[in-house]
C-alpha cells in the first residue's frame, strides 16, 4: 500500500471508525505501515446508534486500538438534517453526504482529533490524495465502481493536507479479502447512501414537520394535468408515482417551489446542454474559462464540458453532448482526467417548451 504521507516512527493517526469493512481495513493497513491508530466514533442521531456502537467497539477491541466516542448529535441535527430538509422544501435535491463531509466528518470530527494532539486523520473513502510541496490534490480512487472523490469535492485544501486515504489504491474485493485475512466477516454488509434515512423520504420529512401541501402538476406549457401533495416528494427525472396516463411517459423536469408546482415533460425535455452552477470552489486559481470533465451527480458518468465564468462564483457549463436529468441542488464536480479540480452547486433552471 502506498500512503500519501511520510510515516514518522510511531506517529499516531486518528481514524474515523464506523464498524464497517472500509474503516476497519483502513485502520489495519495503517497499523501495518507503521502508524499507531486511535479510533474515533461519531455519535449521530440514528435509530441504529446502539448497534453501531457495539459493532465498532468490537472492531476496536479486535484491532487492539483505543476508541473515543464523539457526541455530534446536536451539531449533526442542526448542520446536516436541518440543511437537508430545508433544501427539499425549496424544491432542491441535496446531497447530504457532501455537506456532512465538509462540515461534520472533516470539520468537527477532524477538529476533535486534532484537539487530541493528532495531526493526521484517515477514513475508508475510496479516493486518493497526492501531496506536493504546496498543496494536497484530490484524485479519483483506483476502483471506478467505488470511487468516492465526488463526495469529498467540497473539502478545503486545509482539510485535505491532514488526510490519509489508504483505500484509494484498493478495489472493493481487495478490501473484503483483507478483512477476511484479518478474521472479520463483513459479507453482505454495505453502508447505505444516506445514513440517517432509515425510512422513506416522505415519512422522514413529515417527522421533521414537512407535511403534505397540495399543488398542481403542470406541463412545461403551463397546463394542469394532475395534483401533488408536496414538491419534496419528487425529483428531476422521476417517472414513477406521477399517476398521469398518456401515450408516452411523463417525467419530472423541474420543481417550482415559488408556485408549488411539479413541472412535467417528455423524455427529450430532460436533456440539457447547459446549466449554471453557483458557489464554485476551485483547487486552483479560478479560471475565466476551463475545459474538462464534469460529473453532475454521484452515479453520473463524467462528461466533457466547457465552463465560462459569469461572476465571482457562478459559471455556465456547456456539455459537448446533452446530459439527462440535471438536478438543482446537486453538485457538479470538475475533473482533469482523474484529478478533482473544483465543484459548484447546480442552480434551479427554467425548462424549454416542446
First-last Cα distance: 54 Å
**How many individual β-strands?**
17
Please trace the helix and strand order, writing H or E for each element: EHEHEHHEEEHEHHEEEEEEEEEE
Class derived from helix and strand content: alpha/beta
Enter the CATH topology name of the largest domain: Rossmann fold
Anisotropy-based shape: globular
Biggest sheet: strand arrangement? 12-15-14-13-16-17
**Overall number of domains:** 3
Radius of gyration over C-alpha positions, nearest whole angstrom: 22 Å
- The CATH architecture of the largest domain can be named as 3-Layer(aba) Sandwich
The low-confidence parts are none
Largest sheet: 6 strands, antiparallel, barrel
**CATH superfamily heading of the largest domain:** HUPs
| Separate helix tally | 7
Report the sheet-strand fraction. 25-35%
Mean residue pLDDT: 92
How would you describe what is shown here?
The chain has 354 residues and is of the alpha/beta class. It has three domains: 12-181, Rossmann fold, CATH 3.40.50; 212-265, Adenine nucleotide alpha hydrolases-like domains (SH3 type barrels), CATH 2.30.30.280; 271-346, Elongation Factor Tu (Ef-tu), domain 3 (Beta Barrel), CATH 2.40.30. Helices cover 24% and strands 29% of the residues. It has seven helices and 17 strands. A hairpin with a 2-residue loop joins strand 16 and strand 17 (339-346). Helix 3 (73-89) packs antiparallel against helix 4 (96-115). It is globular.
Amino acid at each position: 500500500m502506498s500512503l500519501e504521507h511520510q510515516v514518522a516512527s510511531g506517529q499516531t493517526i486518528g481514524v474515523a471508525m464506523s464498524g464497517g469493512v472500509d474503516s476497519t481495513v483502513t485502520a489495519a493497513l495503517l497499523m501495518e505501515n507503521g502508524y499507531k491508530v486511535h479510533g474515533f466514533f461519531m455519535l449521530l442521531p440514528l435509530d441504529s446508534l446502539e448497534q453501531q456502537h457495539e459493532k465498532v467497539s468490537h472492531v476496536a477491541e479486535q484491532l487492539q486500538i483505543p476508541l473515543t466516542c464523539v457526541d455530534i448529535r446536536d451539531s449533526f441535527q442542526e448542520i446536516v438534517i436541518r440543511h437537508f430538509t430545508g433544501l427539499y422544501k425549496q424544491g432542491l435535491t441535496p446531497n447530504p453526504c457532501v455537506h456532512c463531509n465538509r462540515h461534520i466528518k472533516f470539520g468537527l470530527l477532524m477538529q476533535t482529533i486534532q484537539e487530541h494532539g493528532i495531526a493526521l486523520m484517515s477514513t475508508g473513502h475510496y479516493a486518493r490524495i497526492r501531496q506536493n510541496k504546496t498543496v494536497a490534490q484530490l484524485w479519483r480512487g483506483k476502483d471506478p465502481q467505488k470511487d468516492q472523490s465526488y463526495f469529498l469535492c467540497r473539502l478545503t485544501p486545509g482539510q485535505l493536507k491532514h488526510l490519509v486515504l489508504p483505500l484509494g489504491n484498493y478495489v472493493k474485493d481487495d478490501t473484503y479479502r483483507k478483512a477476511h485475512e484479518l478474521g472479520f466477516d463483513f459479507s453482505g454488509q454495505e453502508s447505505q447512501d444516506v445514513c440517517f434515512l432509515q425510512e422513506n423520504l416522505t415519512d422522514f420529512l413529515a417527522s421533521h414537520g414537512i407535511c403534505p401541501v397540495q399543488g398542481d402538476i403542470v406541463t412545461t406549457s403551463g397546463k394542469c394535468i394532475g395534483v401533488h401533495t408536496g414538491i419534496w416528494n419528487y425529483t428531476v427525472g422521476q417517472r414513477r408515482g406521477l399517476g398521469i396516463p398518456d401515450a408516452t411517459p411523463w417525467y419530472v423536469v423541474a420543481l417550482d417551489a415559488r408556485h408549488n408546482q411539479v413541472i412535467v415533460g417528455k423524455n427529450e425535455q430532460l436533456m440539457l446542454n447547459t446549466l449554471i452552477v453557483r458557489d464554485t470552489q476551485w483547487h486552483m486559481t479560478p479560471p475565466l474559462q476551463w475545459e474538462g470533465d464534469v460529473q453532475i451527480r454521484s452515479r453520473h458518468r463524467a462528461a466533457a464540458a466547457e465552463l465560462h465564468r459569469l461572476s465571482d462564483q457562478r459559471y455556465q457549463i456547456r456539455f459537448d453532448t446533452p446530459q439527462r436529468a440535471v438536478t438543482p441542488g446537486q453538485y457538479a464536480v470538475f475533473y482533469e482526467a482523474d484529478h478533482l479540480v473544483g465543484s459548484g452547486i447546480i442552480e434551479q433552471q427554467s425548462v424549454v417548451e416542446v
